[in-house]
Design a protein that fits this description.
The chain is mostly helical. The chain has a domain of 135 residues. The chain is 41% helix and 0% strand.
């Protein structure tokens, strides 16, 4: 079953993992087999979501040795460089959750005593997890992805520059059609100002970019702006004065009645 294809091998290992976790089934070198089947070809399949979900469940236990988790982190990071755009976001979320879930693997992101390495000690061709030297390496692939053309991938790759969270985040899966529609709905050059450069090239204003001199800013007048008080013109209006005495109930003639006559 393992020799037919990587996808069927992962699915069969999912059934074996269920027997191991629920029925105490013994399968030696289980993680070595999963590690050998994890390659960039899996990320181009239509079933990549189920494959990454199985990988997350395989590495869900906090009692897994650190060298095993570190080897999977490095293998996923290498696969990330060759993965399609619809698989890069969930893999980045999975890598961040694994670092949060296994704090001992945080040395791949932040070391107390940083070292200068001229070559990556991690051996990607090694199948024995004891000999991959993953703990001696780092997640330098995240720094490379910070220059990715996709904005969401760049933002997710910046987690290595921040303090690690204590709560795992949700791994989001989006198909290629959804990503295409999202990118097409954005305004052209909204982030990097490419639309303005394109307009200048069409209008023949390329000399403005070559001078390198910024345009002088206009002096800002005080009292004007968003929070400036509103000024209203004073209008003098004439008010008519009524000199006549008021007429009303006070002008009526009230007869004087003798009070004792009312009781007769």
């Amino acid at each position: 079953m393992f020799d037919k294809s990587d996808y069927h091998g992962i699915l069969s290992l999912g059934a074996i993992f269920r027997l191991i976790s629920q029925h105490n089934f013994e399968y030696p070198k289980f993680y070595d087999k999963v590690y050998s089947l994890t390659n960039p070809a899996l990320l181009y399949m239509s079933q990549k979501e189920s494959i990454l979900t199985l990988l997350d469940s395989f590495l869900s236990s906090t009692h897994i040795p650190t060298y095993i988790v570190a080897s999977f982190l490095k293998r996923l990071s290498r696969c990330l460089l060759l993965a399609p755009i619809d698989a890069q976001e969930p893999i980045l979320g999975l890598i961040r959750n694994l670092v949060i879930r296994h704090p001992n693997c945080s040395e791949l992101v932040h070391r107390k005593l940083p070292l200068t390495l001229y070559d990556d000690p991690y051996d990607n061709e090694e199948t024995d997890l004891h000999k991959t030297h993953a703990l001696e390496s780092s997640l330098w692939e995240m720094k490379l992805l910070q220059c990715h053309w996709n904005q969401s991938v760049r933002k997710r790759a910046h987690f290595v520059d921040k303090t690690l969270q204590k709560i795992e985040s949700y791994v989001r899966f989006r198909c290629s059609d959804e990503l295409f529609s999202v990118n097409m709905s954005k305004s052209f050059g909204g982030e990097d100002g490419e639309a303005e450069k394109y307009r200048k090239m069409q209008d023949g204003d390329e000399d403005d970019e070559g001078t390198g001199k910024p345009e002088p800013k206009k002096p800002r007048r005080k009292g004007f702006g968003k929070f400036a008080p509103k000024h209203e013109e004073k209008v003098i209006r004439a008010v008519g004065v009524n000199s006549e005495a008021p007429k009303g109930i006070l002008d009526r003639h009230v007869p004087i009645i003798d009070v004792p006559t009312l009781w007769k």
